Amino acid sequence: MSSTGERSTATVYEQVQASPEFNELRSRLRRFIFPMSAAFLVWYLAYVLLASYAPGFMAIKVFGNINVGLIIGLLQFVTTFVITTVYVRFANKHIDPAAEKLRERIEGAE
Questions:
Q1: Where do transmembrane segments lie in this chain (predicted)?
Q2: Residues 6+ apart with CB under 8 A from 69
Q3: Which tens digits make up the pLDDT trace of 6-40?
Q4: Range of the domain at 72
Q5: Which of 24, 41, 58, 110 is disulfide-compatible with 69, CB 3.0–4.6 A?
């Protein structure tokens, strides 16, 4: 490919990156990712802090040999799957259609 072709391709990508549609897409993704990540990290940190500083609370038996610590630990896995499911639905509904429009715009401009 000639340097002119490379420049025009770079220009197309730079134009798309500077477009309001791309900025909206990036903003929409960040508005989902950052709060969800922060919430999960706080939830995980709470679990670690409880395990470290409240072992008596974590050792409370709920039924049989199942205690609060085990339940909260297992809920960490559940939370991961829930966040993944919510993200996939969000991406399918909001991110992927907008990204597809941008992709078509890029491919049409090349």
A1: 32-54, 66-88
A2: 50, 51, 58, 59
A3: 556 667 778 888 889 999 999 999 999 999 999 99
A4: 3-109
A5: 58
Residue 29 half-sphere exposure toward CB, CA atoms < 13 A:
14
* Residues in contact with 29: Cβ distance below 8 Å, sequence separation at least 6, in sequence order: 95
**Domains in the chain: how many in total?**
1
Ordered DSSP codes for the chain: --HHHHHHHHHHHHHHHHSHHHHHHHHHHHHHHHHHHHHHHHHHHHHHHHHHH-HHHHT-EEETTEEHHHHHHHHHHHHHHHHHHHHHHHIIIIIHHHHHHHHHHHHHH-
- Convert the pLDDT of each residue in 63-106 to its tens digit: 999 999 999 999 999 999 999 999 999 999 999 999 998 888 88
- The answer for 63, left when phi > 0, alpha when psi is -120 to 50, beta otherwise, is beta
pLDDT value, residue 15: 82
Q: What is the pTM (predicted TM-score) of this model?
A: 0.76
